[in-house]
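Researcher: Please translate sequence to C-alpha cells.
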Amino acid sequence: MYSFRLDISKASISVHIPINSLNLEIDNTLVAFKALYSKLKKLYKKDLDKLTFVYEPTGSYYFLTKKFCTNKNIKSFIINPKQSSNFAKALGNRSKSDKIDAIILSKAIAVARKDEIKVKLYL
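Model: Translation complete:
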C-alpha cells in the first residue's frame, strides 16, 4: 500500500508522494486532481490499486477530494483532525506547516484499522 497525505485548504492541497519524497502544491480543483492522478499513474504504473489518500475532513473543502477518490476507486483514510494532531505529537513533530504535515501524516496509515481504509462513497 502507498499512502499519500493530502493537506486540504480552500484554494490548494499540499501533497506528499513518498516514492521519491516529492512535495507538491496543487489547486483544489478537478483539473489539478486529474493532473495529479496522471503523475501517480506514471510513478506507480500497475500499483494504482494500492494507492491510499490520507486526509482530514476540513470543512467543505474536502468534498472534491472525496468525490475524486470515489470516481477513481482510490482508497481513503479520512483521519480525524484530533487523531492526526496526536499522531504528529507522538512522532515529536510540533511544527505546523502544510509541507511538514503532509510528510509526517503520510505515515498515519500505520495507525489505521483495516475497516477505516476504503473507497469512500460520495453522496
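Researcher: Any highlights?
Model: The chain has one domain: 2-116.
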